[in-house]
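The methods section describes the discrete structure representation at length, but only in general terms. What matters is that the chain and its backbone geometry are given together, residue for residue. For illustration, here is how one protein appears when written out as sequence plus structure tokens:
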Amino acid sequence: MENKKTVTPLWRNKKMLPIFIQVLFIILVGFAISVMVRNVQSGLDQIGLKIGLDYLNLKASFPIAESLISYTPDDPYKRAIVVGLLNTLKVSFFGIIIASVLGVVMGIARLSSNWLIRQLATVYVEVFRNTPLLVQIFIWNFAVFLPMPKIEDAASIGSFYFSNRGAAIPWFTVHDHSLTWIAVIIVLAVVTVFLFKKLTSIAINAGKQTHPLLSSIAVFALGFILFYFIIGNGPFGVSVPEFNGNAFVGGTSLSIGFLSMLVALSIYTSTYIAEIVRAGILGVPKGQSEAAQALGFKSPTALRLIIFPQAIRIIIPPLTSQYLNLIKNSSLAMAVAYQDIVGIGNTIINQTGHTFETILIMIAVYLLFSLGTSLFMNFFNKKFQLVER
């Protein structure tokens, strides 16, 4: 008699069971989404609204105090949304830069051999990290910036002016040769980086004192000065603010809401970055520091050339999370009347009643910023990964 092949039941088949579970999960998710969409559509039908983006072409009819592009209340809602997107991008971009610099400095200071510096950095981290961000925003807004002098009596530091309307600071202006200068600066930067790596390699392999950092900066500075005399002016002009009796003209103005958000976000996020930097440095094997000392490297040089390049591989992944948190935390800006994408979105919802579509737009904006940041940081991370044979 021929042996009959036993057929494994579907619920016991190790190949088909995972596929079946995934298909079932997709069906359940699709069903849940369809139920939510039907509920939204039913609710909108009851109040006489239809899902669509046609309302974005209607006149906004509300002012926006701070905008990177020209905007008037006669512009459509879609331009108001672009203004909110750019305002969110502005506070997030500068916040990431400032938080990164503060975080690295405080993280290194936490490991300083100087007792006073180490304790000051510890107090900074513990105080600002353990205080709610919204409370810090309110403190900077209502206790620091708003009590500043009136604009007529604005406090000044050089050409920087501070009042209860915000800050007026010098800013760059472009001219006919600005594009040429950008190309020149890119070339000088590439040459500087190449020279720095070459001199560093010689210093490590041959044991010669090549001063790679100073030499690279000197080459960049000499190239910059040379092209300055060739072209006849700098890459940008500088506009300095001047008080005309009612407001400052020239330079650029920063609102109280923007300053409150920028300072609070930067300081709050920098405390987490400081701990990430400290952990990354401590994560480098102690033998690396001992080897650097045995080779005669001074502590700052060893940190810059040996310890930190290895620590950056540990630092980058959690650092990405903090950048994403900063971008998402910028949605608290409406608490101090800084009109970012959330604040402008809420105004549009109140005026039009198109809650569903506007919230989807806000979600899409934060998703775009977050995915873009993650993509850049993942690319940056791959550049620092160890290449295995």
